[in-house]
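Collaborator request, handled under Task 6.
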Amino acid sequence: MEATLSATDVPTFDLQTFARAEDRARLSAVAMRGFRNLCRHWGLSNAEAAALLGVSESTWDRIKRGSWGQPLSQDQMTRASAAIGVYKGLHLLFADGMADRWPRLANNGPIFGRRSPVEAMVEGGIPMMLETRRYVDAVRGGL
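Structure tokens returned to the collaborator:
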């Protein structure tokens, strides 16, 4: 006799999402720490960092100082996650300092149009940040 599972027997998982306030509250401090670190490694200006995270420069200053005590929004979490994914992918792709120089270099890749990836992501917002992450993952063979 074969065992069958009914809908009530199937295990369910409480997936974390950036849409749920409790998940953002739990993840925001780590996301901000990671984002601050990549900004330092990439040599981003305050304006670039603020634009990538989707905040004003004054808010970015508070985040940098660690004096912004609220969770990131869903959009801000998505932006931080995309940028951190690019950072991680580059460090898997390059074994030297190129991982931190690449985001600032003019790029002839089809999605960048001779702009640096940072310029492209600042101008293109979340869609370009996600596309840049996919691009890096594809180049390193991670797709």
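The cover message to the collaborator said: "The chain has a mean pLDDT of 89. The two ends are 41 Å apart (CA to CA). Please let us know whether this matches your experimental observations."
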